[in-house]
Amino acid sequence: MAGMPRVFVTRKIPAAGLQRLQAGAAVTVWPGELPPPPDILRAQVAGCTGLLSLVTDRVDEALLDAAGPQLRVVSQMAVGVDNIDLDACTARGVPVGHTPGVLTETTADLAWALLLAAARRVVDGERFVRSGNWKTFDPLHMLGLDVHGATLGCVGFGRIGQAVARRAHGFGMRVLYAQPRALAAAEAGAARHVPLATLLRESDFITLHTPLNPQTRHLIGTPQFELMKRSAVLINTARGPIVDPQALYAALHAGQIAHAALDVTDPEPILMDSPLLQLENLTITPHVGSATLQTRDRMAVLAAENMLAGLAGARMPHCANPQVYATV
Ligand code: GLV
């Protein structure tokens, strides 16, 4: 261990990644079940050469200052890096690793799990049975929405949006997507590029797949809910703040849309006194888009590989601020 660069890992991660990391660094792992509070994170990272972070850690100027000038690498075990001040890292010549690709299909699977659960009232049905209310077959009870033949709208059509759309073809769905850039026909397949307003008006299921940034914060608010069908279902497996939570509550409460299924919230975790949790037409999971055994292993290994490349002064396999290589 002597002479190895010091790396702080902000949470217990799968052994596959940790072992890879330990081969090239002197690693300290935060042992808590909750993320290290900011003051403890600042103290732990002081003097480290590498920081392996999660979406729950704020990596900002204050943290970079506390780490000190020897910090050479931030490697995040996630694809999204909205918790990290990328400009501040770039200005200090610190490459930031992330884990795209390895979680694409798994996250698309969860978007579909939520879509199907919301459409066919799986969670309602489960609650109904367990609370002893199932007395008979009822022709008018637990009526959901058809998925096959419906229109799916993907807001954001990167890797995950496209993976969600591929699954839709098996359900005979029409697929629309909205994002600033239209894809070449070979990439878009049968999906049609439309303005966001058209997508919101025409879709039965609206699924969010944009990164969180100043342009996408509250992208879905009151004016957008007003465009949606009253039967629409909104699925968010991307980032909570893409949806304005007060507008979401108002839309669900007033029946402006039929249902929302969220894997991410704003704030996160959702507060237990949030009025959203009083609604029957909300399905919610605790930010588990990439949470399978296989995918979390792949993410941890890729985060370790990004870290080791960065520590060796080599180009990372996946760098979220590649412009850093032009400035160092
Ligand atoms: C999880 O939210 C991720 O960005 O990987």
Going by CATH, what is the homologous superfamily of the largest domain?
Answer: NAD(P)-binding Rossmann-like Domain
CATH topology of the largest domain: Rossmann fold
Q: In angstroms, what separates the terminal alpha carbons?
A: 28 Å
Helix fraction, binned, reads 25-40%
Number of strands: 12
Shape: globular
Bound compounds, each kind once, are: glyoxylic acid
The rounded Rg comes to 22 Å
What is the overall pLDDT average? 97
Low-confidence spans: none
Roughly what fraction of the amino acids lie in strands? 5-15%
Which architecture of the largest domain per CATH? 3-Layer(aba) Sandwich
Helical segment tally?
13
The order of strands across the largest sheet is 8-7-6-9-10-11-12
CATH class of the largest domain: Alpha Beta
The chain-level structural class is alpha/beta
How is the main sheet built?
Answer: 7 strands, parallel
| H-E order | EHEHEHEHEHHEHEHEHEHEHEEHH
Describe it.
- 41% of the residues are buried.
- α1 packs parallel to α12, α2 runs parallel beside α3 (61-67) and α5 packs across α7 (159-169).
- By secondary structure, the chain is an alpha/beta fold.
- The protein has helices at residues 15-22, 38-45, 61-67, 86-91, 104-119, 122-130, 159-169, 185-188, 196-202, 222-227, 245-253, 293-311, 324-327; strands at 6-9, 26-29, 50-53, 73-76, 96-97, 151-155, 174-178, 192-193, 205-208, 233-236, 259-262, 282-284.
- It has 13 helices and twelve strands.
- The strands form two sheets. The protein has a seven-stranded parallel sheet with strand order 8-7-6-9-10-11-12, sandwiched between helices. A five-stranded parallel sheet has the order 2-1-3-4-5.
- The protein folds into two domains: 6-100 and 293-326, Rossmann fold; 104-284, Rossmann fold.
- Glyoxylic acid is lined by residues 55, 78-80, 103, 289-290.
